[in-house]
Amino acid sequence: MAAVITLRRTRLMAYLRSANLSNTALADRMGIHRTTLQRHLAGVIRPGEDFIGALLLALPKARFEDLFEVAPAREAS
Question: What is the pTM of this model?
Answer without folding.
Answer: 0.88
